[in-house]
């Protein structure tokens, strides 16, 4: 549903960070319409990763919290987890829309927790001091390793276990961090014995990766399971019998000083509406219909009755 352990003098990040889909943002500048509400509900700075779904989730959180009286700023497209998680630790942002499985593996490469409840329990003990995991939503967005139907037929690929039959022949494409992440090149080799001819650093399940797969510039692509374009392309998702990819329920991670009972209650009310199907529908609007993520978030919140 993608290492820096610290940010050396956040001045580096306060320079410009470029988003996958073009455009820029910085840690120093607010973005979007979800700004000051003039109320006394508290202030929250939401940061997001540099792919459209996470940006949309940031605006979903922002719009909903704004309706609850919070003053909210969104800083979208800040980068990968290796960038934005240290920013959260350092206090440059207050809250992140996260994916539990990948976050847990980021914190503990040896974790075997696969389902949402087990992951949440482990995360509560492994998050750095000063951070808190809030309740997770039923919505999930996992990595699915995709090949074209022609590639699947040529090499007899049905599951990730079959990749080793084509060792040294296939080009893998995905975000740069896939080269060192367990849910990426490292895990595919350790768990399935897969070795690739080359790795192409592209984007996190975005237009660069999908275009490269369509054109044949890469053979295996890291695509998000909630991607609305999967159904319109003749791609084959490789089965993952060893569960290299854990569950990826979406949950906010927040600085403890902001995580009061009111904030927790807000997400407990929001979460039941935030399903995988809702995620796919929002992704279709942003990725296929090319609508603005903030507009899509606002429309979804109103359609569910979460905001008026």
Structure description:
This protein is of the alpha/beta class and 308 residues long. It folds into two domains: 187 residues, Periplasmic binding protein-like II (D-Maltodextrin-Binding Protein, domain 2, 3-Layer(aba) Sandwich), CATH 3.40.190; 95 residues, 3-Layer(aba) Sandwich (D-Maltodextrin-Binding Protein, domain 2), CATH 3.40.190. 36% of the residues lie in helices and 16% in strands. It is built from eleven helices and twelve strands. A five-stranded mixed sheet has the order 9-8-10-7-11, sandwiched between helices. Strands 5-12-6 form a three-stranded antiparallel sheet. A two-stranded antiparallel sheet has the order 1-2. Helix 2 crosses helix 11. The longest helix has 16 residues. The two termini are 29 Å apart. The N terminus is likely disordered.
Quick recap:
This protein is 36% helix and 16% strand. The chain is of the alpha/beta class and 308 residues long.
Low-confidence stretches: 1-25, 34-40
User: For this structure, what is the CATH class of the largest domain?
Assistant: Alpha Beta
Strand content: 15-25%
State the fourth-level CATH superfamily of the largest domain.
Answer: Periplasmic binding protein-like II
Distance between the first and last residues' Cα: 29 Å
* Level-2 CATH architecture of the largest domain: 3-Layer(aba) Sandwich
Share of helix among residues?
25-40%
Number of domains: 2
Query: Structural class, please?
Result: alpha/beta
The largest sheet, given as strand count, sense and whether it forms a barrel, is: 5 strands, mixed
The number of helices is 11
- What is the H/E order? HEEEHEHEHHEEHEHEHEEEHHH
Count of distinct strands: 12
The spatial strand order of the largest sheet comes to 9-8-10-7-11
Rg on CA atoms, Å: 19 Å
Domain ABC-type glycine betaine transport system substrate-binding: 43-302
Keywords: Signal
Pfam families: OpuAC
Biased composition (Acidic residues): 289-298
């Amino acid at each position: 549903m993608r290492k820096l352990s610290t940010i050396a003098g956040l001045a580096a990040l306060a320079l410009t960070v470029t988003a996958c889909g073009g455009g820029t943002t910085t840690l120093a500048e607010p973005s979007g319409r979800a700004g000051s509400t003039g109320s006394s509900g508290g202030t929250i700075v939401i940061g997001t990763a540099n792919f459209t779904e996470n940006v949309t989730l940031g605006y979903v959180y922002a719009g909903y919290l704004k309706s609850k009286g919070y003053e909210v700023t969104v800083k979208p497209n800040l980068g990968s987890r290796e960038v934005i998680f240290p920013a959260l630790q350092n206090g440059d942002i207050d809250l992140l829309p996260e994916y539990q499985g990948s976050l847990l593996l980021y914190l503990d490469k040896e974790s075997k927790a696969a389902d949402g409840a087990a992951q949440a329990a482990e995360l509560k003990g492994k998050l750095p001091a000063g951070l808190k995991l809030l309740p997770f939503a039923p919505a999930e967005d996992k990595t699915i390793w995709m090949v074209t139907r022609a590639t699947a037929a040529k090499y007899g690929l049905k599951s990730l276990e079959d990749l080793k039959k084509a060792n040294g022949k296939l080009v893998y494409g995905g975000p740069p961090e896939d080269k060192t992440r367990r849910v990426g090149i490292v895990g595919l080799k350790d768990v399935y014995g897969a070795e690739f001819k080359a790795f192409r650093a592209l984007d996190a399940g975005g237009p660069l990766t999908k275009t490269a797969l369509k054109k044949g510039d890469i053979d295996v692509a890291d695509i998000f399971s909630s991607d609305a374009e999967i159904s319109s392309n003749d791609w084959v998702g490789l089965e993952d019998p060893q569960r290299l990819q854990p569950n990826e329920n979406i949950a906010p991670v927040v600085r403890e000083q902001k995580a009061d009972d009111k904030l927790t209650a807000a997400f407990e009310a929001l979460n039941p509406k935030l399903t995988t199907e809702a995620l796919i529908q929002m992704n279709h609007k942003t990725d296929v219909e090319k609508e603005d993520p903030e507009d899509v978030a606002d429309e979804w919140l109103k359609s569910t009755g979460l905001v008026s």
